[in-house]
Amino acid sequence: MSVVLAVDAGGTSTRALVVDLSGRSLGYGRAGGGNPLSSGPATAAESLGTAVRGAIGQAGTDPSTIASTTIAMAGASTHLAADDPRNRVIADALIGCGVDAAFGLRSDLLAMFCAGTPALDGYAMVAGTGAAAVRVRAGEVEHVVDGMGWLLGDAGSGFWIGHAVTRAVVADIDGRGPATPMTPALLEMLDLSSGATPPSGPRPEALHRLVEVLYEMRPVRLAQFAPLAFAYPADPVARGVVDAATTALTATINAAIDPDVDGPLVLGGSVLLRQEVASSAVERAWRTGGRTGPVRLVEEGTAGAAVLALRDGGTTVDDEVFDRVASSLAALR
Amino acid sequence: MSVVLAVDAGGTSTRALVVDLSGRSLGYGRAGGGNPLSSGPATAAESLGTAVRGAIGQAGTDPSTIASTTIAMAGASTHLAADDPRNRVIADALIGCGVDAAFGLRSDLLAMFCAGTPALDGYAMVAGTGAAAVRVRAGEVEHVVDGMGWLLGDAGSGFWIGHAVTRAVVADIDGRGPATPMTPALLEMLDLSSGATPPSGPRPEALHRLVEVLYEMRPVRLAQFAPLAFAYPADPVARGVVDAATTALTATINAAIDPDVDGPLVLGGSVLLRQEVASSAVERAWRTGGRTGPVRLVEEGTAGAAVLALRDGGTTVDDEVFDRVASSLAALR
């Protein structure tokens, strides 16, 4: 029986799955970041190779029998020209694993949607380190909102919130902003709350060390501080950050809505999965106007990449096939 | 007669001045960015060398007769440990020019203050690409507020405003934010408003190109878009950015104030020099509580570096010396 290969190549991890055309997962492999844009071509190629070899090995499949490969990746939703260097990175990595079938790139957001539902119409929204929403019609992404990256967009994302948290804490210590309980909490997280340091010169010593430590990180790493904003609902500063984030996320889902499209809303990413105040605000906005579909939470898009791979391979993914993908994948991990 | 050397080493330009102990400027030199942190050690060393050689050459001074050197530089206000690698970069550059006298580093914000007044007490605030305020007492920086850089601080600065402008424009085109006249203006500035492009796929084509162009810039370059926020006072989006910026700048000057310290307020940087709405908000906040000193606008800190160099060389800088520095420097440029 013929098999297809599905890969979900994310910024921090890459997951590969060999699945037969009935939707049964036969082998699963996992590795580090596999997006050539965020991890660099060399690391991405290595991650893709490791994950794919893992999946093929567990399945015991001859790689030359793989009928097609479908790769879900950020950015593939919109633009990936034929001469995009990512094509070459991926092609070389697959050939290195003995996989010589044609491959197709699909949107990571579409894979998230398909990990939550076999429906062909609906919406998906992810708010993890970044934030974006898509409207799906007839199994394709019809409209994307945000996902414009940490500097220009990703409004309400984990980075956006964590950045606002660090700015509020710096302003607090600097005397420009109100005191907030996020300040001692952040200093504690960074192991900088080492008792009473005497003031040194024209600036508090804690401020120096904090700023030094934070600038040493890659900016997107500020996303790790997002939970602090949700931890102090009684603090006006923290609440202000959360309110601004939910307002931004609400504007993003609203911009994705077409009154003619109903169907499920699939939510993913740490902000929407772990912060009920954020997911309920998004759901409330989405329900306005009478949308009746179910809301599904998904941890990641591997099962959705498999759904897309099956469709690319000619399988109609109904509820039964969808459930088989999900349960057989769960059994492998 | 003995002379001293003053250098104002900024992120985009370096200016050097040879001045005699009466305050008369004898030679002036100029070069590119001279801060080892922002321009890198090699470029900074080259800029320092070019500016210093220019000043010495115009003055016709034997460099071995220079009694002392004073260098104003960002970051020197607060911390510059003896083992800081910047010390070595500067020392080598000066020795390369034949200047073997001892050198001292001073705050660039203190130099801005001293470029506006010979007073020993008062305040200075700069809002250019970055933003910071200092309180000066007895000729030294007693307290610094903000200047924490584009990611964590510089609230209300040119970068901060320009960043908010680009985010608002991206949100407008993305359908997440309200329409604003800053959108066509920004697209025009970037030469991206090339008539009607057909929508391509799930995103507007203009958004792709805008985001691509903006991510190719160094983040601080977004400061160039700050004037757009001030250009549309009737637009609620633009006005919101300006209001938030003036609120932030007001918080920064307020945090610098000590009720016991009066004296002049020296303002610098493009936001405060060119945008009356910003400078008047800062002045209004600063006047609260009864401060009576004059407000002075200064373009840059070279004259202030000279004042600091003269003081380091033992000269008392009174109004007469101060005026001589300013007028003889103006005559040289």
Please tell me what the overall shape of chain A is. globular
Task: Write down the secondary-structure element order of chain A.
Answer: EEEHHEHEHEEEHHHHHHEHHEHH
* CATH superfamily label of the largest domain in chain A: ATPase, nucleotide binding domain
Largest sheet of chain A: 5 strands, mixed
Query: Strand-residue fraction of chain A?
Result: 15-25%
Overall number of structural domains of chain A = 2
Q: Largest interface, with Cβ-Cβ < 8 Å?
A: A-B, 39 and 39 residues
Oligomer: homodimer
Amino-to-carboxy terminus distance of chain A: 23 Å
Explain the overall architecture.
The structure is a homodimer of 333-residue chains. The first copy, chain A, has 333 residues and is an alpha/beta fold. Chain A has two domains: 3-117 and 300-332, ATPase, nucleotide binding domain (Nucleotidyltransferase, domain 5, 2-Layer Sandwich), CATH 3.30.420.40; 119-293, Nucleotidyltransferase, domain 5. In chain A, 46% of the residues lie in helices and 18% in strands. Chain A is built from 14 helices and ten strands. Chain A has helices spanning 36-39, 41-59, 85-96, 108-116, 149-152, 158-174, 182-189, 205-216, 226-231, 236-256, 270-274, 276-287, 302-312, 319-332; strands at residues 3-9, 14-20, 25-31, 66-73, 103-107, 122-127, 131-137, 140-146, 265-268, 295-297. In chain A, the strands form two sheets. A five-stranded mixed sheet of chain A has the order 3-2-1-4-5. In chain A, helix 3 (85-96) links the parallel strand 4 (66-73) and strand 5 (103-107). In chain A, helix 4 (108-116) packs across helix 13 (302-312) and helix 10 packs parallel to helix 12. Chain A starts with a strand and ends with a helix. The model of chain A has no long low-confidence stretch (mean pLDDT 92). At the A-B interface, strand 8, helix 5, helix 6, helix 8 and helix 10 of A face strand 8, helix 5, helix 6, helix 8 and helix 10 of B.
